[in-house]
């Protein structure tokens, strides 16, 4: 038994190893920072659990300390990590959300959904949807969390995320556009940062980077072995037969891509497809030159990271009338 406990079942590098006894060894994002007051950024945070009963799902809420009685735009954020890594407590994301809230003057909710390989991919989407419903239970000011009752402006709600988290944000916006409007899940905008979209046939410059392409090619088969086709509409929203983007449930979209990121052409293709889909909102795209996938998370103090943050802050705070 002791030997089998140490015996490797499979590994998905550089993310994790799985042993035959069921133990999962994650290799990235395993550090944890507790919530609290960050005096450097002037941001306070708390964790809320029991949103999805009998699960590890929780959210970390971030609030500017000096917001007084102000109503702020609300950003619901889904972290990246290939659907299997990181949490809102990971330093990479805790530090990023502190910076985002400080720069943008928003209230933010960082979502911890259940991850692979312990849970199949549909659980991450279902958890994220249940969190959205919990968030909107506060829209009349009588929900269970006082910070949301007192400070969230439910006329200005945004979804955002990076990489796999941006994929979740897109899929949540598609769900919003297809559900009964009486659910009162009203999303003003979606900000997708280096979104994880892919497809079976290479586009743009993808074929020029065979090593990178091979890594992305195998991700969805790990994420969803029962439907490993990279044209699954959840990962390829512009695939033949995918639901039309015209039903995207928001009124504005910002797509951020990076020049050296192999996913950039998928982000551009999404931008172009959304623009010609008949969707009645406004879409814009921003490209950071000379940088790779989620570069900003690893160097928040670089000028290019600051420029990206300013674009996001502007997107979250622009008046709606500018988009009518």
From TrEMBL:
InterPro entries: AB_hydrolase_3 (IPR013094), AB_hydrolase_fold (IPR029058), Carboxylest/Gibb_receptor (IPR050466), Lipase_GDXG_put_SER_AS (IPR033140). This is Alpha/beta hydrolase fold-3 domain-containing protein. Residues 75-296 form the Alpha/beta hydrolase fold-3 domain. Belongs to the 'GDXG' lipolytic enzyme family. The active site is at 163. It comes from Solanum stoloniferum. It comes from the Eukaryota.
């Amino acid at each position: 038994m002791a030997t089998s406990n140490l015996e490797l079942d499979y590994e998905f590098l550089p993310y994790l190893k799985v042993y035959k006894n069921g133990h999962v060894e994650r290799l990235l994002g395993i550090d944890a920072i507790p919530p609290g007051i960050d005096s450097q950024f002037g941001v306070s945070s708390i964790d809320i659990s029991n949103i999805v009963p009998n699960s590890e799902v929780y959210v970390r809420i971030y609030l500017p300390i000096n917001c007084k009685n102000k109503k702020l735009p609300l950003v619901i954020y889904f972290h990246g990590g290939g659907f299997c890594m990181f949490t809102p407590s990971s330093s990479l994301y805790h530090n990023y959300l502190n910076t985002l809230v400080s720069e943008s003057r928003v209230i933010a909710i960082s979502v911890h959904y259940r991850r692979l390989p312990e849970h199949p991919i549909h659980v991450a989407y279902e958890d994220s949807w249940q969190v959205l419903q919990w968030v909107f239970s506060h829209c009349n000011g009588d929900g269970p969390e006082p910070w949301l009752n007192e400070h969230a402006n439910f006329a200005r709600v945004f979804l955002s995320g990076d990489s796999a988290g941006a994929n979740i944000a897109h899929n949540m916006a598609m769900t919003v556009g297809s559900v009964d409007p009486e659910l009162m899940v009203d999303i003003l905008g979606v900000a997708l940062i280096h979104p994880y979209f892919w497809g079976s046939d290479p586009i743009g410059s993808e074929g020029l980077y065979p090593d990178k392409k091979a890594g992305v090619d195998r991700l969805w088969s790990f994420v969803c072995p029962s439907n490993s086709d990279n044209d699954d509409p959840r990962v390829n929203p512009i695939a033949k037969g995918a639901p039309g983007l015209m039903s995207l449930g928001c009124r504005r979209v910002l797509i951020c891509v990076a020049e050296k990121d192999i996913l950039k052409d998928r982000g551009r293709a999404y931008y172009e497809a959304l623009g010609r889909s008949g969707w009645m909102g406004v879409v814009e795209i921003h490209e950071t030159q000379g940088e790779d996938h989620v570069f900003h998370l690893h160097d928040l103090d670089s000028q290019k990271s600051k420029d990206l943050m300013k674009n996001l802050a502007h997107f979250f705070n622009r008046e709606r009338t500018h988009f009518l």
